[in-house]
Structure formats: C-alpha cells, structure tokens
What we know:
Layout: E1 2-6, H1 11-20, E2 25-30, H2 33-51, E3 58-63, H3 64-69, E4 73-76, H4 83-90, E5 98-101, E6 106-108, E7 113-115, E8 118-121, E9 129-132, H5 134-142, E10 147-149, H6 156-160, E11 168-174, H7 177-188, E12 193-199, H8 204-208, H9 210-221
Parallel strand pairs: 1-2, 1-4, 2-3, 4-5, 5-10, 11-12
Antiparallel strand pairs: 6-7, 8-9, 10-11
Amino acid sequence: MKIAILGGTGDLGRGLALRWARLHNVAIGSRDGNRAKKFAEDYEQVAERHYGDEMKGSIVGYENLQAARISEVLVLSVPHEDLIEFARLLKPFVNDKIVISPVAPLYKADTSFCYSPYPMSKPSNESPKTYISAAEVVSFELGSKRVVSTFHTLPAKKLCDLTMNLDYDALMAGDDNEAIRLVSKLISQIPDLRPVYAGPLEVSTLLEALTPMLMNLKLYNKIRDPSIKIV
C-alpha cells in the first residue's frame, strides 16, 4: 500500500514511516520537496538497518501535494494552525482516499496545556457558534466521510525507536466502516499497538483532548512519555 505522511518530517511522521516501511511504500511529504527527500533517505537507512531482508516497503520524499497525489492513504501530520488552509489545498488530490487525522489543536496557558477545538458558525436560528474537532474540520473541508481520527495518544519518541514494543491502544473515531477497517489493519501492523474503535467522527473532540491531558500529566507528575491502555 502507498501511504503519504504529509508534514512527515516531525517525530510522529518519522515514527509512522519507520514502522510502516516494513510492509508498505511510504511517501514523506513536506512543503519543501528537497527537504522531504533528505529526511526520507535518513528514515529509509534506519529502517533498512533494522529490518534487513524483512523490509518489503520503501520511504521516499516529495512535496506534500505530490505525495498525496501518488498515495492511497493520507496522514495529516501538520500543525493545527495550518490545518484549514492545508485541507483546502489538499482537496483536489483526495478523491475517495482514506485520510488519517492525528491533529490535536491545543495551546499553552500559564501553567498547563488546553484543548482548543475549532469554532464553526451555525445558522442564525441556532446557537451562534459550535466547536468541532480537527478531524471534523478535515472531513468538512475535504467533503469526505473517509476520515479517521487516531494516534493522539501515541508517544512519538517511542514510536521512532524500533527496538521498543508499543503496549498501547490507538483510539479511533470515524464514520466510514471500510476506512475504519483499513486503518485498524495499519495500526495492528505496528507491533503491540492495538486499535480500539471509540465511535463516530463526532467523538474526535474527546480523543484530541487526550493529547493536552497527557502533556499535563507529563508536566505535573514527571511521567515520561505517558500514553493510553484500555483494560
């Protein structure tokens, strides 16, 4: 399968690329195609050293929209401040592709991290504004129901370390059954990571809010790389 990680030069993009390259062809996207190629070359060397002959996939770098054009699954690893503009640019390249959103809009207050969902105007006869998740913004801007919200609680630095098993759960939300099944399979292909379906896309606000919660747990309790496991 061809998977594009758009904005994939950060820790989450690196970790997903390294894990999925064992079986899949991964395209690292960046605004700068040359930068993406340099990162992808580094990622691929790390993956090849670790997997050896077991590596069936590849990691290559492209400009974001080119990576989206050639791929079947798109991961939006972009800053939440740029999400709406990026989704609008991406729309012509999505068609019926599955889109994964790990985006968690948040901000740093005086002493803690807080969740900051997106305001959306409503008709005049209703409440003036409602607030929606990043994943719902993506679905709205792309005009697609094939959006899956996940990876908000995954410790990216551990994901990047191929010697570590990830005994965590990846909580998912989405409205399209086929998309959920495919993303669940991709998650299951990462050793010891378990996909857990949490409900339709509208519950993504709950999943995204877990990111600042975990960051606060780390901040206040000196817990290194906290994550989620459902028992």
